[in-house]
C-alpha cells in the first residue's frame, strides 16, 4: 500500500506567524496537489505541481515539489484567521489514481 | 454554475439494504472518481472512470460497485452495506488525459450504516 505521510496533523498558531506543512512518501508522483477543505464541503484545489523542484506561489502560500517528486511542502507566511481549515496533499500516480495525505488541521488565532 | 452534485447528502441505513449514491457533473468531464473520507485516514479512492463504460479500481473498492453509462453520471452502489462502510463519501470530476487538470469535488454524502 502506498502512503503519503502528512505532518503535522494539527497546528494551532497565532495570527502573523509562519508555518510549514509537509507531505512525504517513498513513491514517485506524477503530480502533487494541495487542497483546502472547509467543514461540510468537498476539498477545493489550491495548486498542482508537476515538475521536480517546482515552486509555486499563491499570495502568502508557497508550494514546493521535491526534486525527486516524492515529497512536497506548503508554507504559509503571516497566517491569518481566514487560513483556518483542513489542508490536504494528494499525490498523482499517473493521470487517474490519487493518494491523499491524512490532512493538517490548521487553526489561526486572532 | 459548474458543479458536482451528490444525492443524498445524508443517509442512515441498515446493514444489508442496497443503496445508491448518485453523482452528477455539468462540466462535460470525462473523468470521475469516488472517495471515502475517514478520520485519521484521509481520503481514499474507491473507483474511478476515465470515460463512459471505462472504470477501474482505486485503493479500497471492496464492497462497492460503480457504473458509467452516461458521461455526466457516476453512481456508487453498495449492494450489501456494512457498518465499516459508514463514512463521508465524495465524488469528483476532471478533464481526462492531463495530470495537471483540476479535480472538482462534490459536497459529500454522509452515510451511516447501523
Question: How is the secondary structure organized here?
Answer:
The complex is a heterodimer of chains A (110) and B (114).
Chain A: E1 5-7, E2 10-14, E3 19-24, E4 31-37, E5 44-49, E6 55-58, E7 61-65, E8 71-76, E9 85-93, E10 97-100, E11 104-109
Chain B: E1 4-7, E2 10-13, E3 19-25, E4 31-38, E5 42-51, E6 54-57, E7 65-66, E8 76-78, E9 87-94, E10 104-105, E11 109-113
Parallel strand pairs in B: 2-11
Antiparallel strand pairs in B: 1-3, 3-8, 4-5, 4-9, 5-6, 7-8, 9-10, 9-11
Describe this protein's structure:
The complex is a heterodimer of chains A (110) and B (114). By secondary structure, chain A is mainly β. Chain A has one domain: Immunoglobulins (Immunoglobulin-like), CATH 2.60.40.10. Chain A contains no helices and 11 strands. In chain A, the strands form 2 sheets. In chain A, strands 2, 4, 5, 9, 10 and 11 form a 6-stranded mixed beta sheet that branches. Chain A has a 5-stranded antiparallel beta sheet with strand order 1-3-8-7-6, with no helix packed on it. The mean pLDDT of chain A is 95. Chain B is 0% helix and 50% strand. Chain B is mostly beta strands and 114 residues long. The A-B interface holds A 1, 4, 6, 30-31, 33, 40-45, 48, 50, 88, 90, 92, 94-103 and B 4, 31, 33, 35, 40-45, 48, 50, 56, 58-59, 90, 92, 96-100, 102-108.
Would you kindly provide a brief summary of this structure?
Chain A has 110 residues and is mainly β. In chain A, 0% of the residues lie in helices and 55% in strands.
Amino acid at each position: 500500500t502506498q502512503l503519503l505521510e502528512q505532518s503535522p496533523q494539527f497546528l494551532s498558531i497565532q495570527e502573523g506567524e509562519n508555518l510549514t506543512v509537509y507531505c512525504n512518501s517513498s513513491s514517485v508522483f506524477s503530480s502533487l496537489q494541495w487542497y483546502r477543505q472547509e467543514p461540510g464541503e468537498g476539498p477545493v484545489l489550491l495548486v498542482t505541481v508537476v515538475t521536480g523542484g517546482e515552486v509555486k506561489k499563491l499570495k502568502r502560500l508557497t508550494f514546493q515539489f521535491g526534486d525527486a517528486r516524492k515529497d512536497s511542502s506548503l508554507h504559509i507566511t503571516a497566517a491569518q484567521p481566514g487560513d483556518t481549515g483542513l489542508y490536504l496533499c494528494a499525490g498523482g500516480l499517473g493521470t487517474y489514481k490519487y493518494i491523499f495525505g491524512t490532512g493538517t488541521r490548521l487553526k489561526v488565532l486572532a | 454554475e459548474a458543479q458536482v452534485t451528490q444525492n443524498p447528502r445524508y443517509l442512515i441505513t441498515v446493514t444489508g439494504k442496497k443503496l445508491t449514491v448518485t453523482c452528477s457533473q455539468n462540466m462535460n468531464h470525462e473523468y470521475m472518481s469516488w472517495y471515502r473520507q475517514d478520520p485519521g485516514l484521509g481520503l481514499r479512492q474507491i473507483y474511478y472512470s476515465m470515460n463512459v463504460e471505462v472504470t477501474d479500481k482505486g485503493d479500497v473498492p471492496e464492497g462497492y460497485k460503480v457504473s458509467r453509462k452516461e458521461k455526466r453520471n457516476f453512481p456508487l452502489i453498495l449492494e450489501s452495506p456494512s457498518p465499516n462502510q459508514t463514512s463521508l463519501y465524495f465524488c469528483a470530476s476532471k478533464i481526462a488525459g492531463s495530470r495537471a487538470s483540476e479535480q472538482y469535488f462534490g459536497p459529500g454524502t454522509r452515510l451511516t450504516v447501523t
